[in-house]
Amino acid sequence: MKLSEKACKIIAKLISVLGIGLSIFVGGYIFLIRPIYTIFIGFTNDTLTSKDLLISIVLIFLAATVSGGIWIVFDMIAGIFRDMHGKEE
After folding, report:
1. Residue 9 above 70 pLDDT?
2. DSSP per-residue codes, 41-61
3. pLDDT in the model for residue 86
4. Under DSSP, is residue 4 helix (H, G, I), strand (E, B) or coil?
5. Residue 89 has pLDDT above 60, yes or no
6. Distance between alpha carbon 32 and the CA centroid of its chain, in Å?
7. Among candidates 39, 57, 56, which has minimal Cα distance to 48?
8. pLDDT attached to residue 85
């Protein structure tokens, strides 16, 4: 199935926006904000265990890596659609 050049550009933009949103949600919220909140709540309630602290620290350190990885994968997929009309046969 052949897609028009305009449709490919729209699909590429949608995939890029989806990748940015997903990377912000996963890397920013799940891997950064939630662990910080867990540490804060555990510390204020005196229920913070060393296991919770260690898991939260690991998640905080992995936040940028996971976020970047998600963004790169979606950008590569969007690149397939961006370059689709450059390689006509």
Report:
1. yes
2. HHHHTT---HHHHHHHHHHHH
3. 64
4. coil
5. no
6. 12
7. 39
8. 72
